[in-house]
# Entry
Amino acid sequence: MQVAVVTFDGFNELDSFVASALINRCRKDGLEAFITTPTPVVTSMNGVEVSGQRPMEFVTEADVVLIGSGVKTRDVVADDRLISRLPLDPSRQLIGAQCSGALVLARLGLLESMPACTDMKSRPFVEACGVTVLDAPFHAEGNIATAGGCLASQYLATWVITRTLGEDAARGVLGYVAPVGESQETVERALRAVHTGEAALR
# Structure
């Protein structure tokens, strides 16, 4: 199973790297994430240059697609050519968005009547798309999920791992990366956020 972590120029490092790093701890179980970029090299919001591991066209074959956020997301959604390179299919793919990545899902028409999570700065722009923004870190309906707040990227990764490999796999990953002495607390918080986000509005 392959995960495309879509990473645009001006990206937020926490969004792309935390999610991909957590997911890649499941390589031995057949789940692997790749930084997927529209150009060979993208530069983060803090000036870090990163070479993409996969081109944008990889999103069509990926089993999971996560849309990261960044300081140029509004430019992304205004670029028809760039948006056309994201032919996502929620009937066969898990699709998630982090913070301003919700704008991309809205632009692609994937949110429809579904509410979303995003960060405080992106909230008014997401709402301007006619999307209800929740005061929550994570929300999922079916195969689509959104997370709000940089560190909520761990919840997006937890959702992906849980949906593809099961809760035990997610517990193993989270327990390993958790701060020493806070393993159980970290694991339970992440799983609670995901379960709550999936159960909301049922």
Summary: The chain has a mean pLDDT of 94.
